């Protein structure tokens, strides 16, 4: 059985999941709040307590634990991942011909949402306001030119559109990159184009055609969601389950069923089944146990206030680890912007 | 956009009420929101010289925040702001450094497991 925490430590370090509500939601670790605690900012102390562990990573997803940091800063990283890490997306659509049944503006919107594989770090933002043409440093040009025809080789009694027509399904892979200026040399092996080739954009019938040129520019998710580099970026706090008494027999069986599989296991102690918390991380924090009157006083449910389980899912434009690094750099850049602004104000006086 | 103004957009403004000292200042941070506002508020509240620190978003359609700092003992409010920004930068640098070393370790371990 775990040693119970002191009252103050519990308020400081745990978010309590009670029967009728969640307690101790806010951070309170500020100087002057608790006698006997030094809550003044101390970088050394932070570095000692801070931990980061990568749990899982593949091509497009990343899960890692960030421990010993406040929600205010962890949340800043999450918000930046969603809205302030730049990517390249279709911004201007020039429709020279569209005889399909999908309207110009709907098609343009669909094109905008297709993730475009082009490294945003190698491009500049296009000047807003000005009407000047895009250049090789701020614009990627794509072309979608396709016409649907009858399939001359289709059998006479065919009724399947797949066999009857050619090019009747327009996919994102049909968006072809048209290099501007020196782009053909600079991005020779960058493979610029849609991340996924199998996104259905429109369906055509014989005689219908699309002739479209797109300009892709660098932008931020806070301007339009199409620029967001992540499918999702979220965190949850590590669940913490404490058994206040030894729970055995039928009660232990029932306790186990109150939690997600793998959270509670039964141990054999002198022929009796005794409940034990094995892996609280797997819990969904459903609080089902609090609906059992005889069990609810035997457990304490909480979450560790400074243990963030981050999950980042990339759209495929940049790998998820690069996105996290970029997000941290964005926050550093924000701080530096205001520091230099403060310096210039001080100089003027 | 009707952006024909050639004037540079303001980034940071300082607003002081009449008769108040330089220890009580509202900073207007343009083009910012909860992302910087809340994390910076946390860092500045960690400073024992600061009596009050808070921020508000003026209106959802205005992209700026009012960031208020009141200090103890007549300390100019720019000092804790500067310290807060520096501390936040240090935190970010440490997070970035730790993330990159842990990522390298993870990749090495994964490489070993593959062999």
From TrEMBL, chain A:
Keywords: Acetylation, Cytoplasm, DNA-directed RNA polymerase, Nucleus, Transcription
UniProt GO MF annotations: DNA binding; DNA-directed RNA polymerase activity; protein dimerization activity
Protein name per UniProt: DNA-directed RNA polymerases I and III subunit RPAC1
Pfam families assigned: RNA_pol_A_bac (PF01000), RNA_pol_L (PF01193)
Keyword check for rRNA-binding: no
Protein's job: DNA-dependent RNA polymerase catalyzes the transcription of DNA into RNA using the four ribonucleoside triphosphates as substrates. Common component of RNA polymerases I and III which synthesize ribosomal RNA precursors and short non-coding RNAs including 5S rRNA, snRNAs, tRNAs and miRNAs, respectively. POLR1C/RPAC1 is part of the polymerase core and may function as a clamp element that moves to open and close the cleft.
Family of the protein in this entry: Belongs to the archaeal Rpo3/eukaryotic RPB3 RNA polymerase subunit family.
PANTHER family referenced in this protein's UniProt entry, alphabetically: DNA-DIRECTED RNA POLYMERASE (PTHR11800), DNA-DIRECTED RNA POLYMERASES I AND III SUBUNIT RPAC1 (PTHR11800:SF13)
Intracellular or extracellular location(s): Cytoplasm, Cytosol; Nucleus
CC annotations in GO: cytosol; nucleoplasm; RNA polymerase I complex; RNA polymerase III complex
GO biological process: DNA-templated transcription
Domain (DNA-directed RNA polymerase RpoA/D/Rpb3-type): residue spans on this chain: 61-341
NCBIfam families linked to this entry: PRK00783.1 (NF001988)
InterPro entries for the chain: DNA-dir_RNA_pol_30-40kDasu_CS, DNA-dir_RNA_pol_insert, DNA-dir_RNA_pol_RpoA/D/Rpb3, RBP11-like, RNAP_Rpo3/Rpb3/RPAC1, RNAPI/III_AC40, RNApol_insert_sf, Rpo3/RPB3_RNA_Pol_subunit
Automatic annotation (TrEMBL), chain B:
GO MF, one example: DNA binding
GO biological process: transcription by RNA polymerase III; transcription elongation by RNA polymerase I
InterPro entries cross-referenced by the UniProt entry: RBP11-like, RBP11-like_dimer, RNA_pol_Rpb11_13-16kDa_CS, RNAP_AC19, Rpo11-like
Oxidoreductase listed as a keyword: no
UniProt keyword list: DNA-directed RNA polymerase, Nucleus, Transcription
GO cellular component terms, A-Z: RNA polymerase I complex; RNA polymerase III complex
PROSITE patterns noted in UniProt: RNA_POL_L_13KD (PS01154)
Top-level division of the source organism's lineage: Eukaryota
Domain DNA-directed RNA polymerase RBP11-like dimerisation, first and last residues per copy: 25-96
Localisation per UniProt entry: Nucleus
Principal subcellular localisation of the protein: nucleus
CDD domains, per database record: RNAP_I_III_AC19 (cd07029)
Family designation: Belongs to the archaeal Rpo11/eukaryotic RPB11/RPC19 RNA polymerase subunit family.
UniProt-listed HAMAP family: RNApol_arch_Rpo11
Identification of the protein by name: DNA-directed RNA polymerases I and III subunit RPAC2
Record organism: Hemibagrus wyckioides
């Amino acid at each position: 059985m775990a040693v119970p925490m002191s009252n103050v430590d519990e308020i400081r370090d745990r978010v309590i999941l009670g029967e009728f509500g969640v307690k101790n939601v806010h951070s309170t670790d500020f100087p002057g709040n608790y006698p006997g605690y030094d809550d003044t900012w101390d970088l050394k102390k932070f570095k000692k307590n801070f931990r980061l562990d990568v749990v899982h990573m593949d091509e497009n997803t990343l899960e890692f634990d960030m421990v010993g940091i406040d929600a205010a800063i962890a949340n800043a990283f999450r918000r930046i991942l969603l809205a302030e890490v730049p990517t390249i997306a279709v911004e201007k659509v020039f429709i020279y011909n569209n005889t399909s049944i999908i309207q110009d503006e709907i098609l343009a919107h669909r094109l905008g949402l297709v993730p475009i594989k082009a490294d945003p770090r190698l491009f500049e933002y296009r000047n807003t306001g000005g009407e000047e043409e895009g250049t090789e440093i701020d614009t990627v040009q794509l072309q979608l030119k396709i016409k649907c025809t009858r399939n001359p080789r289709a059998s006479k009694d065919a009724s399947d559109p797949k066999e009857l027509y050619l090019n009747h399904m327009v996919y994102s892979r049909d968006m072809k990159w048209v290099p501007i200026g020196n782009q053909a040399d600079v991005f020779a092996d960058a493979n610029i184009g849609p991340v996924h080739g199998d996104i259905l954009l429109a369906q055509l019938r014989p005689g219908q055609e699309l002739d479209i040129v797109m300009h892709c520019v660098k932008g931020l998710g806070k301007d339009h969601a199409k620029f967001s580099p992540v499918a999702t970026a979220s965190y949850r706090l590590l669940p913490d389950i404490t058994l206040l008494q030894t729970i055995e027999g039928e009660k232990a069986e029932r306790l186990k069923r109150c939690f997600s599989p793998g959270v509670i296991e039964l141990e054999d102690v002198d022929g009796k089944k005794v409940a034990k918390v094995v892996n609280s991380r797997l819990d969904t924090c459903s609080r089902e146990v609090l609906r059992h009157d005889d069990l609810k006083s035997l457990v304490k449910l909480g979450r560790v206030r400074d243990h963030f389980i981050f999950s980042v899912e990339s759209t495929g434009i940049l790998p998820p680890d690069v996105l996290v690094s970029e997000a941290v750099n964005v926050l550093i850049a924000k701080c530096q912007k205001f520091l230099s602004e403060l310096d210039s104000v001080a100089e003027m006086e | 956009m009707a952006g024909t103004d050639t004037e540079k957009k303001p980034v940071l403004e300082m607003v002081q009420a009449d008769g108040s000292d330089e220890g009580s200042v509202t900073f207007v941070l343009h083009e910012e929101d909860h992302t910087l506002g809340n994390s910076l508020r946390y860092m500045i509240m960690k400073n024992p010289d600061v009596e009050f620190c808070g921020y508000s978003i003026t209106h959802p359609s205005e992209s700026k925040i009012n960031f208020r700092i009141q200090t103890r003992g007549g300390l100019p409010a720019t000092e804790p702001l500067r310290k807060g920004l520096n501390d936040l930068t240090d935190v970010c640098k440490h997070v970035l450094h730790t993330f990159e070393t842990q990522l390298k370790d993870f990749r090495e371990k994964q490489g070993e497991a593959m062999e």
